[in-house]
Structure formats: structure tokens, C-alpha cells
């Protein structure tokens, strides 16, 4: 068996393992978008996460990530930056297709497949994006989002040195995503180069949010809350449910009762 066949077999195996794991939790073939996410963020490792956040933001980003990103943006021509990022993201299309299929998003899955074929051929391995000219929109979905859609909780919050906020669910999802072909077929250094390109462009796009973090009362708490809000936004396709705890719900009920009394008094 060749290395390509072994990787392809591994991808098929991972796909069916993922499918079985989703159906084994008692979910239907289409995920329940009405399920309520937890109101509280699980952070049992805060005593470890906080120092890691300080290291990541105050030292790693300040003295490594930000200077390298600034140099990359200053040196690299824009067309080359866009082309390299397109190539890196094009490799995500097959895993995104599977993740959309697992959520019953067949139209998005078809778009992912079309994008990968067109951009990998006419687009010169993804350097160009002719698929967009055919109205094939990018709908990248991660396996962590699939798990969240099917009701799997985030698990403990994690702060990864140099990389930033994450969760147990997202780390499991990333492992699955990176195991599918063609990303799983990349050798070590090409894989590192691809992640570096995505990381540099993500940091370059960070922009004015740096000042927001620096001006926040508790930057650790701010980043954690923002991360989970973003995860909810992605899992619920831009329409997350409003989550309130019991105390907030009681205050809301009292407020509505007061409005009713005011309306009755005015009649």
C-alpha cells in the first residue's frame, strides 16, 4: 500500500469514526439548532491559563509574533500574501466539505468540493481563487463546530502558549481536521509553513483589537469571553441563542412585570 492510499484510508476511517461518534450521542441526522449552550464558561485550569495568557500576550506576542508579522507584512507583496493564504486555506476545503455534510449542509458541502477542484487546477494549487468567479462561496467549517452543533460541550477552556485561546472540543476538532487528506498528507515542514502563513495573516488582521485588549479591566477574562462568543456565533451560523442565568432571568421577569403595572396604571 502506498503512502497516499494509506492516508486516504485513514481519512475514510476518521470520517466514519466521527460519524459514528456523533450518532452515538443520540442525535438525529440533522443537528438541533434550538439546543441551549451553557451559561457558564468552564475554566477549571484558570490558575494555569492566566500565567500562560500573560506569557503569550505580554512576551511571546510582543517580542516574537508581532515583530515577525510586521516584518512579513512590510516585506511581502500583497498579491503574494493573498496567493499563499489562498493556497493554505484551499487545503481546508475537503475537511470543510465533510464537516458540512455531517451537519446536513449539502449545498455548502457541494460548494466546498467545487472550490477545491477549481482552485486546485485552474487556480494553480489554490494560489488564485477562480471558484469565487463561479459564485462558489467559501463556507469553511471545522470539526469542533460539528461537535458543538450536535450538543458536545466546549469542555475546559485552554490557553495555548503563542497560539491563544482554545478549548478541549476545539483541540479535538483540530486534530480530526488535520488528519484528513490533503492536510494529513503534508510533510512536516510544508505543514509548518502552511500554519505559519495562516497564523501570520490572522495576526496581521488583528488590527485595532490590540488596544481593546490592553484597555480592558481584565484582559484574560475579556479574551476568554470573546473567544466563547465567537465559538457560539460560528456553531449557530451567526444566530446564537440568548443565554441568561437564573438571576438574570428573574430580574428580567421583574422588569417585565413592572412594565405591565405601568401600562395597567395608564389605562
UniProtKB/TrEMBL annotation:
PROSITE patterns: PROKAR_LIPOPROTEIN. Keywords: Signal. Pfam families: MlaA. Residues 1-26 form the signal peptide. It comes from the Bacteria. Belongs to the MlaA family. This is ABC transporter. It comes from Thalassotalea eurytherma.
